[in-house]
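Per reviewer request, we include the raw input and output of the structure prediction for the construct analysed in the revised manuscript.
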Amino acid sequence: MFIKGFRFSAVEAAIKRPGRKDIALIYSEVPATAAAVFTTNKVKAAPVLLSAKNIASGQCQALLVNSGNANACTGERGMSDAIETASMLASKLQISEKLIQVCSTGVIGVPLPMERIRTALPSLVSELGNVSLEDIAEAIMTTDTFAKSSVLTGAIEGKSYTIAGIAKGAGMIMPNMATMLSFIITDAAVDPALINQIFLSSVERSFNAITIDGDTSTNDTCLLMANGASGAPLIKPATPEAAQFTSLLDSVLLDLAKQIVKDGEGATKFVEIRIKGASNDSEAKKAAISVANSSLVKTAFYGQDANWGRIFAAIGYSGIEVNPDLLALWFDDVCMAKQGIFAGGNAEERGTEILHKKDFTVTVDLGIGDGTATVYTSDLSHEYVSINADYRT
């Protein structure tokens, strides 16, 4: 995956255990116009606090990320370690510390092994350009079972540009910002007045529309860097070029978001929850999240039990306006309930067949208004418990 003006590096620092590359660098040859969103968890990791401060400039040139250790709940030492790491990298790259984003993922509450990071940084910088973006995707994995990447191309006045992204995440996934780590880079030139607006709305339609277990991490970070190295004209607000770029960005982010759900810890099902007929879109989103996060609903999906009543119950406690007598529900194209009661006939048998599929859609019509929302989720299996019971061992 080649994106003009960007170089990548990944090396082993044995942060959690030896045997894999676990520290990585994304470097733009020029300062890039940038936007980022971070966890809304009030317990924020040191790298999140530092990066949120640095991104205020609207520019980024280098991203350093490690797996195996979250550097969260590590007090003053954690912040000192994050600052030192950024300072060392800035010195070696000969750029301002304010142009550096630092991200970490892994075990919470354990200080970074700084001696190993200090040792690894010179090699990380000297190896720039020797790995691909896909290698970075592998280096940032924790409980992920596969590396997640996506790429699309566009063109302006005959000049092509690329949007590429990577992500990690399989657990602690809940729509509350951008629930994981995700890094999006493009060699397009994007007007600074536009980049925040389109990025935030794209995140809302993708990463903020997924949930695996309802947990919001201390380290969630999603970053977009646009360095303009493609030579394509500047993308300005309220233009056809901006609309095209936004559409491509939406597709890349949604692809990554869906990959995260499909790689959910212990997941065997990928489920699209569609709510329509709500009083407004916000209420529809609340209903969809309530269904997608329900342990009873998710275990029914895992057990292939067409227990549609659990879905109605989850909507009923979501806090939105509901008329039970108007509710209707489908598994794919099989109507399970209408006017709030069982649809009858062979719906149970046909609905159970749908739940045996690996991917399926649940649609609920509230029958009240025009509000709609879509959320993506997984089932909840025995394996999820096993993975998280043994996470630190």
